[in-house]
Amino acid sequence: MGLTKEEKAMLSGERGPALQRAMEIIWALGKIYGAAGTVPVKSAQISGISYKNIGEAGLDFLKKWASEGAKVQIPAMMNPAGMDLKRWKEMGIPAEFAQKQSEIVETLVAMGVEPTLTCAPYLARNRPEFGEHLAWSESSAVIFANSVIGARTNREGGPSALAAAIVGRTACYGFHTEQGRKPACLVEVACPLKDEADFGALGYLIGKKLGYKTPYIRLRSELPAINKELLLRAMGAAMAASGSVSLFHVEGLTPEAEIFPAEGERLTIDSLNVAYFALSSPLNEVDLIWIGCPHASPEELELIASLVNGRTLSTRLWVTTSREIAEKAGKAVEVIEEAGGLVLSDTCLVVAPVEALGIKSVATNSAKAAFYLPSWAKVQVAFAPLEECLTRYGGVR
After folding, report:
1. Alpha helices in 85-127 (DSSP H)
2. CB within 8 A of 250, min separation 6: which ones?
3. pLDDT tens-digit readout, 275-291
4. Distance of CA 169 to the CA centre of its chain
5. CB–CB of 49/108 below 8 Å?
6. CA distances from 170 to 15, 123, 153, 166, 176 (A)
7. Can you tell me whether residue 14 is helix, strand or coil?
């Protein structure tokens, strides 16, 4: 792997231990994946910051790096933490967990990382541009940036994304290259798609069948009258969860579908039944309704508010979103909370200490959440479209 004079100086330790540690990570990944060199990145997004995920060892690692003087050189953002930093008591988070989680966030802030605490940074002020190189690590953000925006990022790990932020570059391989963005399979979707849950179910099936391969998707049916980006991100988030897909092309919808035409093996999907069966348990009632995986957009908050306006929920409702979006959608948030819901920021149920919260069953419209929650949080899941979650399980009529 070819390195510049400055990169060699960082790798040798001439620029200090913090930069050396970061450059060692970038160099090692480049060697593993056969990168010819590095590429400058415009922003980094760092996952794995929940104390549930990284524990004491991860916290110690971050503290050591910070003590060496590590500072980010480019805009760097945090993925969700294991709790709402302000409303963790309302969530029922144990105080010990809250203390450790706060330490993780404070350590990253000391390194210059913005406490965005969202899996959807593209919904706020950090939306990349077409062709920009990034070092993002949250799977749903990576696939959205690559596919819907046309930016370029590999699916970084938390440490490698932080390393890229510290040195301002990452190894140039995979989705940073033209060759790495070509599709490997044509997916013909013959069944109708009615809503965001259907798109999530479709993404689940594609991810399970393709693993890490990049699909070129051809939708035969007319799209529902819903924001297209919301549908595509629901599909992408599920695809990245059930498989390791980091890029998809959809004919007529995504910006690189014409640049990289369909090629490779063919797969036809004519039913979503297998996905719904795999993702949902037959539950008549649940402990919690959770919406916002990926984090809810302003349009989703408005839609939820319209469905619960003037009504009282019979089941707990948590809606997760970024703090910036929640503040912008203040009226919708107010309506949701008047109905008995709770709009939470900074967090995601998948990385929260659910076992300590007494939650055993969840209804959600997110195929990604439905895929992860049973194994990561040991809860049963009812997977259904948003309106069904609120009417069937939340008592809204």
Report:
1. 88-91, 95-110
2. 147, 217, 218, 219, 232, 257
3. 999 999 999 999 999 99
4. 22
5. yes
6. 17, 24, 9, 10, 10
7. coil
Q: Name all domains of the chain by residue range, CATH numbers in brackets.
A: 5-176 (3.30.499), 182-277 (no CATH), 280-393 (3.30.499.10)
Q: For residue 47, is pLDDT > 90?
A: yes
The answer to whether the bond into 294 is cis (omega within 30° of 0) is: yes
Dump pLDDT digits (tens) for 333-389.
Answer: 999 999 999 999 999 999 999 989 999 999 999 999 999 999 999 999 999 999 999
Token match 């599920």: residue?
238
pLDDT in tens, 118-142: 999 999 877 999 999 999 999 999 9
- Count Cβ neighbours within 10 Å for each residue of 145-170 and write b for 16 or more, e otherwise: bbbbbbbbbbbbebbbbbbbbbbbbb
**Using CB atoms within 10 A of its CB, is residue 31 exposed (0-12), middle (13-18) or buried (19+)?**
exposed
Query: What is the spatial distance between Cα 150 and Cα 135, in angstroms, rounded to a whole number?
Result: 14
**In sequence order, what E strands does the chain have?**
38-40, 44-46, 76-78, 135-136, 169-171, 185-189, 215-219, 249-250, 265-269, 288-291, 316-321, 342-345, 361-364, 380-383
Our CA angle for 188, 191, 195, nearest 5°, is 115
- 397: pLDDT strictly greater than 80: no
Check residue 93 and give its pLDDT.
97
Residue type, 121: P
pLDDT reported for residue 198: 98
**pLDDT of residue 261 exceeding 90:** no
φ, ψ (nearest 5 deg) of residue 177: -110, 155
Question: Quick one: how far is CA 119 from the chain centroid?
Answer: 4
DSSP 188: E
